[in-house]
Amino acid sequence: MHNKYFNGVKYLTINDNDLKWGLTTTTVGFQSIKPSQDYPTKEHPSPYYFYPDYGRILQEFQLIYVTKGKGSFKSAQSDATAIEEGSIIFLFPDEWHTYRPSAKEGWDAYWIGFKGLIAGNLLDKQFLQKRAPIQNIGHNEQMVNLFQQALDIASREQTSFQPLLSGITMHLLGLIHYTVKMMLLRTRKSSIKLIRRAC
């Protein structure tokens, strides 16, 4: 898949007014990691850079979408999990985690970081769950388009860009929730059909 955001990494400014909105975006990015390439790359500032063997703890939520390749993930509440193409990884504030692409295959991944009362409420109401940090939604072109819109907006940082990015973040979260629920519904319907055929 062609992607004009080859290794685009953006960390964003946040002011007091942005925080009042209830959801702010801290970082947006896309990276294509080649097989056997060092990971993570050096573009990340110290609060974000980490050594995969030791992991890290962030003070924000992050949503990572792996669109190509494979890797692995582990967190304080999740055992080691294989990451495949189409996987969504959720990172939570104050939650130890580590992840890395496969040395054999590498990966392409988008991400967006966010924080605020709205995100906290989604966690409190269990729409986001620390015990279920991985979802696989397959390839979703709408997700890719939303990430690319976010990268465009973040690259310019024009006046009041934060509320616009927060809208895209909510759209991403809503789309993931919808997609996962629809996949479960289709699976249940298929199971019911198989049971009926067997009877």
Automatic annotation (TrEMBL):
Metal-binding as UniProt keyword: no
Pfam families hit by this protein: AraC_binding
GO biological process terms on file: regulation of DNA-templated transcription
Keywords attached to this entry: DNA-binding
Keyword DNA-binding in annotation: yes
Record InterPro entries: AraC-bd, HTH-like
Domain AraC-type arabinose-binding/dimerisation: 59-173
GO molecular function: DNA binding
SUPFAM superfamilies: Regulatory protein AraC (SSF51215)
Protein name: AraC-type arabinose-binding/dimerisation domain-containing protein
Organism, as annotated: Arachidicoccus ginsenosidivorans
